Each structure stands twice: as structure tokens, then as C-alpha cells.
Amino acid sequence: MKKPELLAPAGNLTKLKIALAYGADAVYASVGSFSLRQRSAREFTIETFTEGIKLAHKKGAKFYATVNGFPVNVQIENIKKHLKMLGDLGVDGIIIATPGVINLAKEFAPNAQIHLSTQANVMNYLDANIYHQMGASRIVAAREMNLKDAVKIKEMVPNLEIEIFIHGSMCFAYSGRCLISAVQSGRFSNRGACANDCRFNYELYAKNEEKGTLFRIEEDSSGTYIMNSKDLNLSSYVEQIIKTNAIDSFKIEGRTKSEYYVACTTNAYRMAIDDAMAGKFDASIYEKELATLNNRGFTDGYLVSRPFEKNSTQNLDEVLEQGTHKTHAITEDGLSFKSKGMLKKGVSYEIFAPQNAEILEVDNEIGRIYKQNSKFWLEFKSLKNENAKEFDEVHSGNLNAILSPAKLPEFSFLRKEN
Questions:
Q1: Confidence check: pLDDT of 31 > 80
Q2: What is 84-125 written as a DSSP string?
Q3: For the whole model, what pTM was predicted?
Q4: Judgement on whether residues 99 and 247 belong to the same structural domain of the protein
Q5: Are 114 and 123 in contact (CB under 8 A)?
Q6: Same-domain status, 268 and 329
């Protein structure tokens, strides 16, 4: 079997570091105004973006830049400058949605690979081959494509890499071809400013034109989340997908999601890929880890079954469901924690750390770190910051860095079951 690349989202420099720490083979990010995630693009400066590229390469990972918006005429000259900058910075690949920008990339960033964005909606080998002839070395397949078609594309265009989304938010529209945000909010989804109007709750009415009567269909006062797609989760199918030898890269969606989301998803799919290659795949392990995340409910999307074969792809009840665990803190340096929830003395928090990281058991005046049921736990005896100021408890948003009883792996989290 061919081992696929694990590609993780890097919404900012910290999330990029987390993705690498938890086992990503590659990361994708953006800076500037030409990505479909302008919010995350604003979290990078040219300096931190450059630092991220260097760090990824130092760790032996690839760095892909997204320029996958649909530009209008006034943006073309700036896109040329942007592509040249990305080429000069040494990104490994550029994710692009339109033929015109592909041609610009070949001219202004000739050393970077061209990856065709999922926004281009490639569903068959004819279109895949056309884009390959135009210069694309990889396609990010349309989310609506099934696995058999991916296998057929690889058979017909063997030198073309295929990347699929393995986890993350699902768009209500066909591969992002949506105008709801533009109509309701004046924010254009295909230019990077989607307001996620499909996540809103709506009230439905029926009107009789002859009598002028208007009836409210939904009796629930909160309305219904009629367009709220569940989140994609293909963790149970990782081994099946790998065995086709057709997929070159597994992509996790979520540049605007939390630091813990990046850590948890990267960790779970790293385990799933490695276990599948080692012949010890156990879907229940990865499903349990991913269930710790807040989510909209999970669906296997369209890769392994057809949309018309099921009616479980929408969450009509609520915009977001609580995961099985809550994140309470993160340590970036391993020495002190930033609060993400509530930290209390005498409470045991599970330590969530990168795989194979070394954790030592200790017991001192600050707290204790111990192992129980194959997991490591931390219990604070005192909550002190670096200036020895002590707190009774620490809430989310408190900027004080709380000392750890011992050095932990960088980007470890403290979490607790709800």
C-alpha cells in the first residue's frame, strides 16, 4: 500500500506548529486577500508566514499556499505580485481554483507545484487530465466525487496526484458554489468572505396568494437549521481508502478552527494512517478521539456512499454539538499553561500530547503528574504564575501563564470529560 500524505490546516503560526508537532506531513495556509479563508489569512504577516515556511521545511514537511479565490479583473495585477512573492518564499505548492491563475503561477512562481482547488469541481478523468496538461500536478477532488471515480482518475491519469478531504466542515452547496452569503450578507463566498449563512436557523412559511394568508410551517420557536450540513469524518474508512492506492493526500479542513481542533484531528488521522500501514487499524480509537471535538454531528459525506442513499447528512436541530471533552489549557513551551477553560486545584486533567512524547511522573508543591489507565493526568496543588502570584482558580481569558509541575511536551493540552 502507498502511504498518503497527511495535510493539516495552519490558520496561524501557532496552529502550524501544532500541526507539525502532532504529525502532519504538510500544512496549508494563506496570507493576503486571495484565499477562500480571508480571516485566517489575516492572522499571518509576511514575517510569520515566512517563518512558517522555514519551520515546515526544517521539520521535513511541505508547505502549500492557498490562492484559491475567484478573482475579478481589478485583482489580477496584485495576484501576479502575490504569486511571485510565494515563489520567492519557496512554498512547495500553490492551491489554485481557476485556469487563468494557473497560467499566472507558471509564469510568476515557476518552481512551485500547482494544486487544483476543490473549487474547480473535478469529478472525472477528462477534466482531471485537462488540468494536468495545463500544469496541475495534483487535484483536490470535488467533495461530491466518490471513491470509485477517484480510482478511475488515477487509472487514467497515473501521474496526477489526488488529494481528498478526510475531515472537517461540509459546504451546503455544490463544492462551495454558493450565493446565499452574497445575497443575504453582501459577503462573497468564492472571494473568501463567506458568512456561513447555511449555519443560521430559519423559519419556514407557506403563503396562499389568493387569500393572502401566511402560515408558519415550523412550530419550534427557534426555527430549524435546514441547511446545516454535518461535519465530514472519514476516520473509519482510512484503511479502505489507502488500499485503493489512488489517494495521495488526506486533507483536514479547518484553518479558522481552534488550536485543539488542529491537534486532535492531526493526531487522530496520523494514528489511523500509521495503524493502517502497520496492519493494526482500529476505527473505534480514532472515532473516540474525534468525538472529543465540538462538531455538528458526523457524516461520511459522498466519498463512500451516494447522497441519495442516506438522509443523515444534515443537523436540523442545532448549529453545533458539544464534544465529549472540554479543553481547559494549552502549553506552548511545556513550562506553563494558558487557560482555555477553567483551572482548579485538586482536579485531575488529562494530558493530551503528541504521540510518543516523553512525559515524566512527578509530585511536588505545584502539583503532580501521574499515569493511570494508560493516560497521563495532571493535578494542580497550587496555581501560580511566573511571578509566584497564586490564584484560587483560573478562568478562560486569564492571561497569566500558570506553571506546570514539570516540563511537558510543547503544545500539550489539558482536557477533561464533560
A1: yes
A2: HHHHHHT-SEEEE-SHHHHHHHHHH-TTSEEEE-GGG---SH
A3: 0.91
A4: yes
A5: no
A6: no
